[in-house]
Amino acid sequence: MTFRARHLLGIEHLAPDEIRTVLDLAETYVDLNRRTVKHSDALSGMTQINMFFENSTRTQASFELAGKRLGADVMNMSVAHSSVKKGETLIDTALTLNAMHPDLLVVRHPASGAVDLLAQKVNCAVLNAGDGRHEHPTQALLDALTIRRAKGRIQRLTVAICGDIAHSRVARSNLILLGKMENRIRLIGPPTLMPSGVADLGCEVYEDMREGLRDCDVVMMLRLQKERMDGGFIPSEREYYHRYGLDAEKLSFAKEDAIVMHPGPMNRGVEIDGELADDINRSVIQDQVEMGVAVRMASMDLLARNLRAERGRKAVGVMV
Amino acid sequence: MTTLLTNARLIDPEAGTDTLGALLIEDGVIARIFDTPDGLPDKSPTLRRQDADGKCLAPGIVDLGVKIGEPGERHKESFRSAGLAAAAGGVTTIIARPDTHPAIDTPETLEFVTRRAAEASPVRIRHMAALTKGREGREMTEIGFLLDAGAIAFTDCDHVVTDTKVLSRALTYAKSLGALVMGHPQEPVLSKGAATTSGKFASLRGLPGVSPMAERIGFDRDMGMVEMTGVKYHFDQITTARALPPLERAKANGFDVTAGTSIHHLTLNEFDVGDYRTFFKVKPPLRSEDDRLATVGAVASGLIDIVSSMHTPQDEESKRLPYEDAASGAVALETFLPAAMRLYHAGHLTLPQLFRAMALNPANRLGLPQGRLAEGAPADLVLFDPDTPFVLDRFKLRSKSKNTPFDGQRMEGRVLATWVAGKQVFSTEA
């Protein structure tokens, strides 16, 4: 079992064996979560603060539940209404929180790199719950766990990531994780929503959905943000659905047993056909939500172990 | 007083030579240059001999486009701190930018800064004035009065005048007075909100990027305005390969245009930003390695005339923010010469080529007598050792702001002494 990280800021900093460690431990939590008594003492006595500078219901709930099932004292800071609005800087907010001795800090922020910045200023473990367009590591880990359970492996698969790649931190984290685990990655989307220079990152870029989906094992759809529709990046919602919305016809180009994923929340009829999303034979979207709690439990458990070990070393005065 | 600097490597950007000799300073000017290391055998009692020990003696740097915080942001940089930093960096003439608060856009504010600068700074400071009032791009400033009050050039700095009618009138008026206008080649709508250059790095870091073509588009528009008005024009920073062919054409077609670039764009690239290090956030953003090398090549060939520090002090608070929100700019008066030595040691540029771009060309473009090692020229000089290694500690910089991208980096090249009008204003021995 290997997991060296002090913080979980991005997939970029994880090695393949660390990724496997998280997934393996998460499997045990999947089992735990399916029991009637869903409790462990892994984080007993520890304090977890969820700090969301950007509104999120699903991710925050997932982290909160994960912390509570592991026995942590969980606090949610609704930062959108706090002193941050009164001009307090991110660093000051971090220092204020740090003085309350949290053990785990779960942070979502609209600016890329903001969570990295915050992590430099606190002495607890920091989990990135999404920073700008940069990374969303637990999403990539839960996607990996979902794929591994559905496909039996997380190597040598052809994975298509479709839609608004440019503005998606989910796409970035998945791209990095799937690349590290030696998969073939295709990015499919309109050129206005494709980040520049991605072809240099070792993935294949497609503008045509059918061509891109050909013989894929996994189809990952991304959410199209409301503010990106209508004229700015794409001509209209209906044209987008026509060309890039996933329906049974387009999916027929992928492998027969290809699975369909979506990080949620979905725009039915914009990026994905409603019926397809609910098709239990193809869609693993509900599994993703379930795996989300397990992966977050595993991540926090591993970070807490490293934190305890570090504090233990400090207490006995070992040079590190 | 008369000083004879003996045994010096004379870097003459005009002749393009780098030879051992001696130089006599008398009454604030370079009185004589000798092609022998010993110079005068004169035993005159008033003559002070100073052995340069084989180190390099070059004309002092003329730094076009330095931001000083007066008025408005004196906590970031004052004329005093900028002047001391310049002296320690071998910069003998600062050409200050008007992007202050308020902007230098009236003869009264220009007189104020001219007086303050003269009182406080050990090196020469000349001032540019805004092209439009408040740098807002709506009405032209009193270009005539400002010229009379000593404005050396006109620029709205990084505020691009988007209204081409306003710009065409301002340029036409400036042309009639023979004034030099400096522009920032950048398409402002395309580059709005950008923190990096678009490409692999921006995509990996999830930062909003601007296509390098925004510079080329801005350049083409400005060239259209130059062709229309015939004004004397200088592009402050050319940093991309795509803007070089049109620059070459513009010069070949005989337009009175010159171009500059910044030392940061010559020595750093986009990947140096690493994990969101905001001290590397400059304007325009750092470019790809290909663009950097093309820009270095253009300085070597002389297509790009001028290299500036683009010194832009920012306090800690404005840099301790998420990358997108952090302020742009880097201090560079003191790191300019050591950073330039990287180009020399890498074999990209010779010392005379560097001083042509850092001293001779800016002086010529601005009509100043500085920038040359010639008999009769002002004795504005820098003595430096291009090989002294050191690790840069930003807290040792003389600037009030410490926002340098070179913090903790290994550098080579140290200024040993600086003279302005024959007076020694800096020495490592002092």
Features:
heterodimer; A: 320 residues; alpha/beta; 4-stranded parallel beta sheet; 11 helices; 9 strands; 39% helix; globular; B: 430 residues; Urease, subunit C, domain 1; TIM Barrel; 2 domains; 5-stranded parallel beta sheet; 12 helices
Q: Mind explaining what this structure looks like?
A:
The complex is a heterodimer of chains A (320) and B (430). Chain A has 320 residues and is of the alpha/beta class. Chain A contains 11 helices and 9 strands. In chain A, the strands form 2 sheets. In chain A, strands 7-6-5-8-9 form a 5-stranded parallel sheet. In chain A, helix 2 links the parallel strand 1 and strand 2. In chain A, helix 5 crosses helix 6. Chain A starts with 15 loop residues before the first helix and ends in a 5-residue tail after the last helix. Chain B is globular and about 65 Å long. In chain B, the strands form 4 sheets. In chain B, strands 1, 2, 3, 4, 5, 16, 17 and 18 form an 8-stranded mixed sheet that branches. In chain B, strands 9-10-13-14-15 form a 5-stranded parallel sheet. Chain B starts with a strand and ends with a strand. The model of chain B has no long low-confidence stretch (mean pLDDT 96). In chain B, helix 6 packs parallel to helix 7. At the A-B interface, helix 4 of A face helix 5 of B.
- The assigned structural class of chain A equals alpha/beta
Low-confidence stretches of chain A: none
- Estimate percent helicity of chain A: 25-40%
Sheet with most strands of chain A: 5 strands, parallel
Question: What is shown here, in short?
Answer:
The complex is a heterodimer of chains A (320) and B (430). Chain A is built from 11 helices and 9 strands.
Can you lay out the helices and strands and say which pair or pack?
The complex is a heterodimer of chains A (320) and B (430).
Chain A: H1 16-33, E1 47-52, H2 58-69, E2 73-77, H3 90-98, E3 104-109, H4 114-119, E4 125-131, H5 137-151, E5 158-162, H6 169-180, E6 184-188, E7 204-206, H7 209-213, E8 218-221, H8 237-244, H9 248-251, E9 259-261, H10 274-278, H11 285-315
Helix pairs in contact in A: 1-5, 1-11, 2-11, 5-6, 5-11
Chain B: E1 2-12, E2 17-26, E3 29-34, E4 47-51, E5 56-59, E6 61-66, H1 79-89, E7 91-96, H2 107-120, E8 124-127, H3 143-148, E9 154-155, H4 164-176, E10 180-183, E11 196-197, H5 200-205, E12 209-210, H6 213-229, E13 232-235, H7 244-252, E14 257-262, H8 263-267, H9 289-301, E15 306-308, H10 316-319, H11 336-345, H12 351-366, E16 381-391, E17 410-420, E18 423-427
Parallel strand pairs in B: 1-4, 1-5, 6-7, 7-8, 9-10, 10-13, 11-12, 13-14, 14-15
Antiparallel strand pairs in B: 1-2, 2-3, 5-16, 16-17, 17-18
Helix pairs in contact in B: 4-6, 6-7
